[in-house]
Amino acid sequence: MKVLGIGEVVADNVYRVNDMSLTDQQPCSQQVQHCLGGPVPIALILLARLGVNCTLLASIGTDEQGEDLKKELRHERVHLLTQHQPATKSNIILVDEKTGNRKKMRGSVTHAPLRNLKTEFLRQFDVILIDRHEPQALYEVLQKKAPHTRLVIDPSTEISALTLDMLKHAEYPIVPIEGVLKIDGGSTLFEKIKALYAMSRKEIIVTAGSLGTILYDGKTIEIIPSMDIRAQDTNGAGDVFRAGVIYGVLRKWDIRKSIKMGNVVAALQCLKPGNSTAIPTKREIIRAAKSLRPKHIEIRHLEAYCQELG
């Protein structure tokens, strides 16, 4: 089982605060945690902990922060192929102490795009996971990957020509509910999901935060509930959810079982503060799969959640 990840690596500076209204200033909080961030590396760390052979292709700064992130990835047994840059990307993450909800403020550092990927290199992987920050690499992957290689993408909540094209080409379109609500094609959540299916012609997986996951196969909309927990920090939950689904795909599980795995690891991620520091271990996952219970979720809960999101 071999997985390639292509995407940004970020130094996350996580602050636990009471006031989530801050937008452009350093948070006034002593509770700060520095950790590795970025949707693709977080997913790969979880997969590596589950015994998957993982390679990360990314640009990382040669500064002290970058060296620390490289050490962490190597410690997690993620094989690292880097395009070196002068400075490391960094974010400020605000975490609401009461709800665990988060707000991200991006830093100003930018990196040159990854390009000129070798065909023979790409064709060795069973799954390729890529985020929206490397569009040039995405189109090279589509041209050069092996026919058996499955593509999983992370569009975040962005809905643009690029992310819609990513969803169209992915074998497993996974999109947050916040992104689905931005899609043209009907006024309700379910009409928008159906519009997304009409575009991709593949099963649509919609992550719906604390409610769980929505699966649409072209005929039936199904809710696969989240685990019943009290979240401390939602940072990275969507990233490890993708890893859980990928793990199921690699093990040849059906899509519902794979999504349930994603829901379990996402719940565990939310029980600890931080991003990479909260990723569950294999032992924790095995224990949680036996002990955690799903919530009782109905359509009316989804409708209320969509109204809250606006």
How would you describe what is shown here?
The chain is an alpha/beta fold. 36% of the residues lie in helices and 25% in strands. It is built from eleven helices and 13 strands. It has helices at 39-49, 64-75, 119-122, 135-144, 161-169, 177-180, 189-200, 237-250, 255-269, 282-291, 299-309, and strands at residues 2-6, 10-17, 32-37, 53-61, 78-85, 89-96, 102-106, 127-131, 150-154, 174-176, 204-207, 212-216, 221-225. The strands form three sheets. A five-stranded parallel beta sheet has the order 5-4-1-8-9, with helices on both faces. β11 (204-207) and β12 form a beta hairpin. The termini are far apart. The model has no long low-confidence stretch (mean pLDDT 90).
Q: SSE layout and pairings?
A:
Layout: E1 2-6, E2 10-17, E3 32-37, H1 39-49, E4 53-61, H2 64-75, E5 78-85, E6 89-96, E7 102-106, H3 119-122, E8 127-131, H4 135-144, E9 150-154, H5 161-169, E10 174-176, H6 177-180, H7 189-200, E11 204-207, E12 212-216, E13 221-225, H8 237-250, H9 255-269, H10 282-291, H11 299-309
Parallel strand pairs: 1-4, 1-8, 2-6, 4-5, 8-9, 10-11
Antiparallel strand pairs: 2-3, 6-7, 11-12, 12-13
Helix pairs in contact: 1-8, 8-9, 9-10
**How are the strands ordered across the major sheet?**
5-4-1-8-9
Strand percentage: 15-25%
Number of strands: 13
Q: Compute the gyration radius: what is it?
A: 18 Å
What helical percentage do the residues reach? 25-40%
